[in-house]
Amino acid sequence: MGIKRNKPGISTKALKPDKLSWKEDFRKNGILYLLFLPVLVWEILFHYLPLPGILMAFQDFSISKGLFGSKWVGFEHFVELFTGSGFPLAFRNTVAMAILSLTIGFSASIIFALILTTFPHKRFRRLAQSASYLPNFVSAVVMCSLATEFLSEKGAITMFLSLFGADKQNWLANPDIPVFWLIYTFIGIWQGMGWGSIVYVASISNISGELHEAAAIDGANRFQRIWHVTLPGILPLIVMMWTMNVGIVLKLVGGNILLLYMPQTYDVADVLSTYTYRMSFGGSANYGLSTASGLFQSVLGLILLVTSNKLSKRAAGYSLF
Amino acid sequence: MVESSSFAGHMANVILGLVLLLIAFCSIVPMWHVLMASISEGRDLFAKDGLVLLPVGGLNFEGYKLVFSDPSILRSYAVTVFYVVGTAGLGLLLNVLGGYVLSQNSRLKPFFVAMLMFSMMFSGGLIPSYIVNSRLGLVGSPLAIIIPGCTNAMAVIMCMNAFLQVPRETVEAARMDGAGHLPLMFQVMLPQGKGLIMVTVINSALMAWNAWFEASIYLPRQRKWWPLQLLIRDLTAKNQDFLNYANPDYNRYLIQYVVIVIATLPVLLTFPFFQKRLEENMVVGAVKG
Amino acid sequence: MRRESRVFRKLITSVAAAGCMVSLAACGNDSGSGDTVNITYWSPRGEDSSLYEQYEDNPVVKYIEENYTFNDKKLHFEFYIAPPGSEADNFSNLLGTGDYCDVMDMSMASSTAPELYEDDIIWDLTELVPANMPNYMAFLEANPDCESSIYSIVDGEKKILMLRGFSDGIQPMFQGFCYRRDWIAKYGANPQTGAAFTYGFTDENDFESWEDDVVFPNGTDEPLYISDWEWMFEIFEKAMEEQGISDGYCYSPYYYGYMQTGDLFTGFGGGAPYWYNDNGTCVNGIETDSFRAYLQCLNTWYQKGWLDKSFSEHTSDVFFAVDAPKVFQGKVGLWQGRISTVGTQIDADDAYTDGAVVYGCRQPINDIYGGPEQQNKEPDHMYQFGKDGNGVVLTKKMSEEQVVTFLKFADFMFSEEGTLLQSGLSKEQYEASQDEFYTRLGLTEGMYTIVEEDGREILKYNVDTSDTAFNAAILARVQPVLQKVENVDRGYDRYMKQATESWDYYENTASLSYGVMNAVNVEDAQTITKVRANYDQFLIRTVPFMIKGSGYDIWDDASWEQFLGDVNKYQAGTVTEIYQKAIDLMEK
Q: Domain coordinates of chain C in residue numbers?
């Protein structure tokens, strides 16, 4: 498996295919490589050729002088980024919201998919699923203005929470940890859960029905079947999605924040992307700084990706690469 | 025992049903708000804060009239469908090829996977990409919308995963019968991994449907090749400052809602088709009888 | 399986078909032949596509192309309009990749004209402009306040690198302070005599017939001072109380608590909470006692409950639409509003807007807070269009012949004939050209009529100037042109006239001119960006709290000193020095 199954007790090496020499490999897999050629060409053209753009992070990039004519400034932009007054808080907030989105946010889609697939009434299930992906199409501006409304002093959610003893307040203006982080996470779930569940629904539907029936005959109830049949069945997918999400989560955090934060919540709401945005486009555009920040997030993402891949290999026995 | 378990099962279904109902409700609210806002009276809507449950100030379709007074809107539907089909089709081809190759063991495979993952994390940015596309002669051509954005690392890897889910025995059996790579890929493995591959198709189709930025960069002058989303952005942007003028036409305020409706409706209508395909071999948790 | 492969085949065919289409580069480069000169023109904005799709279809452009020759050549324009939302990206891309047009509008530029000149991308027009543009030069001579904005400074040398459009007067502003005149009349009383005001519409059917005898504490019928505002606020409070409005307020400042353009602040001794030009000296408004007096004023208002108490939470509002729904619900007394709120326009016959009459008012002059230096000074820095329009640069893609032809065209647009043509086609011009767009929109009487009024020639528009079609019928997106705004009748009703006159009563004379901005060298411009990145953050995070009475105590001298010290920690002084250097260069 490309999602490698690393059974406990069996050494990893034993599972790896016998190493062929390059020559043998090419003779055996030559056609395979030929088939990969279109993807390879596409990758090189549209991802790798533009990649030297990263060098802007080390330049005072001037649009007219171009990538190779601009002045080199070494790590100046990184120093500027890290020493900026808002950096420590922005970094903390990014990490916090990334963690929430990888835990609560990530599992919401899976749980929803499980609920959907175990629910017996086909028509109702379809309706619920169709409804659930609607928020994915409503623009962020509308979603955020509705959220703002619901969370305001007289908003529906504020009223509901006050039943449990919470103060009536504008929740979005609340600078306490972790109010904003949770709000942000739940808006993300609201927007993305339905659409995100499609991939799991598809994968669950690929699990052969016989397994379920066998389990049912063994007397397993619904939850046991989910636990013993469905979840193991989609575990490789979950691991894959999780690992990839870990890699890009830092870049994804921050999409709606410009629409939701305000001066009094900057300390809890500012994230790397909003921070960089304000840092680099105050006056004339500072391409160097924004590229440096992007590069920093990419490198961090890469480290996280490799780490989480290792972790999932150890914990679940699956890994992406 | 059978009694109690079916009773428990029933209760569970009721609870799950309520949860689904709640989720569905929360999901419909924003869209309902947009739909109702789009058929409200502009002036009344402007003074309203909060959720719109029914058209404010009476039914009014002037917003739709304003949007469709632009003849290019209808044409852009066709253009967008062309992009969606092109992107999803080309993407499917690349994803299946890539996914299949990566599902087979070979010495270059780890390198390929690493290369894909790397490209997912790092990108050169807009200007270098523009230069590359310009050298390739894509600037000013609708192909600039289709080719560079047709797939991504995640989709290829998802396809790889789909192929890996195909039972080994099936593949080996087909190999024994002397099936080459192409028949193996298209005739044996593809039908079995259909679910996930369908998801990649849906994803890239949706991405193409929502895309506007590429067109704005690569087709600035080719207005007749603008996709719907870019056109409606243009429309919204040009109507945003209507209040800067005396005697404003408040129906212009509705445009931002109308465009969401007209851009979502086609998706809404086609999704059930995909849903059916996705559910074809879905197992329902409850056991019959 | 078979079905899928058929789908594939279809796909591949359609993709291949698309591939056969000719690919066009962004800005074509055909300089024209024979007696026609082609010019490609990049602009960040076009017209609504329901009016016409390409800017080539602009009636004025067509008219000029058909009826005039410049330098004995016919002119043919090809327009490249940036798609919305990515104008700046579009500009950067074209420059970064060499795909730029002959003429580039600079209003969305990420590079300055001197930068482009140093990179050999644009023409140095220092000699060509005076040689080919007599009308342009004559206009600048007659308007010395405009002259400095056409120059850029490269290595200490004044150069003309950009062609800038102008208007022959201050373009009427579309926004400013607005207040509920009807509330004052209804709930207020004469500050001298204590008598109630008389007010009302003299003619039920004429919305322009509002009459009242409102007198403000300053003795006139207009609010001019901060003390007038406070008097109004007390009346607004009473009005809201009597009508049972519980979620209204008197005034809502922009959500940082101040606007960099200086509105409201400027009445506290002049300038803006930004860098401004105080008669040749660059001043950072934040560091002045004016800012302190301003904050003390707002803090007082906040304590008294006159300010929108959640003013710092309206993050998504644009600056001149602070919490617009409340205004349109009729729950606000005074606001920074657009011309669309003036007069009886917000009256929607509902509970709080019924009978609403809104007047515009001037920037108020402080007469209460701070010391004598902060009081009774005329405002001189606010959001105002002024006379300067956008600028364009001519790129090296143009041959000298093209440049000269374009300059002659531009000069024509500064002649009387050209200026009139910028305002659209007259009846005669329409009848001669039978323009398709004018016919379609029924503009068969032409855009304007020239009428005599008090011995002056007034250009009276025949059409609704607030309609989107108006901009499409005139030449609104091409620069440089001289736009006619003096002696123009835009068909405004009396409230709009009153409002625009109040908004444009004071002139913005203290802001840093385009000339000063263009005299900042490339390195210094980057320093400014870097300093401001942190400095602005500091202010945004502090000022709202100061107004609300937490953080630095603006009433306490030691605390204020500490604030000034912290401002300096962010090196605001460096920016002051850079701008001072630029001002000195320009004045030389």
A: 36-159+403-482, 514-587
